[in-house]
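Problem: given the chain below (386 residues), write out its structure.
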Amino acid sequence: MNIDFLSPINDEATEYNVFQSTSNIGENIQIHSRQNGFPDLDDVSIVILGIKEGRKAVNNEGCGEDLSSIRKKLYQLFPGNWHVSIADIGNIEQGNSIEDTYFAVSKTIEALLKKNIIPIIIGGSQDLTYANYRAYDKLEQTVNLVSVDSRFDLGSLEEEITSTSFLSKIIMEQPNNLFNYSNIGYQTYYNSQEEIQLLENLYFDAYRLGEVKNLQLVEPIMRDADIVSIDIGAVKQSDAIANNNCSPNGFYGEEICAIARYAGISDKVTSFGVYEYNARIDNKNQTAALIAQVIWYFIEGVNFRAKDYPYSTKESYQKFTVMLEDDDPVNFYKSDKSGRWWMEINLITDNKYKRHTLIPCAYQDYVKATERQIPERWYKAQQKLT
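Solution.
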């Protein structure tokens, strides 16, 4: 990979690390520093990647300028019983233009994906999700994007890309590699009814904040994700103040950590980002501490991956066939290893969509099907393929 895009961690963060216990995370990961140079990534499973780009942040000036507070808070945490190797590869600085930054981000993440390394991205403005998505272009597969956000950030195709308008570019621009988009935690008063209806017409998934306060609903959504993008403004203001767009309502700190753990547990998630952190307004580094804990929980989740679908064959599952109201059979599969459920889409013939053959679901979806009710996620997936 091209390490010219990456600058080392500043001395403030690495020097702070010296005073920590030898058992802390900072003493047990490889760090790209001026003193030690760039780490060897041959046996690394997860990297931390900072992106100091915030020029397209809307109403959040200062976003991405300083990421050292997050790193200091992360380095001082103690690791769990982890078996994965972690490296912090430094920062991508602002390019001469925003397009230069996007190019550096896409190429860096693309190189990491080819090495089967999961990047944990610390942003920067959330429009960087677009650059993350473009990193999948060369993989020749469709991907699923999950955004944890109070807003859809749709904008319009005519608008330039910003932190509030990047999604329309992901949906409409070619090459179009997006199979499904899911929003977790939107707040209705921040999104127009036209936008809500548009997502419905596209058979995408949107879950209101109150709905996903039942966090068990989040697990199958995350299990189907390739890219996870978290706007820290989705967390309520009292728990994460370092964002000019934060709201009195949102997820609690422990809830966003649980969501991150579900993302980590997912066998399909290959990139994870937390965006819109603004160090200028982080009182007592409270939000930096929360983001560090979000990262901790994501890594914890990765360590507990069950290696279910797509890593195992259907023979590793119990199969249940249910007849729907039109006498259409739907096959459900339950993992012998984890007890998690999937439902099968039978219409897929194009290799581009083969990895979407099994749609993650909950046991409740199977129960609904036995009552001759069509599971919503199954229906939407079918509509996107017909």
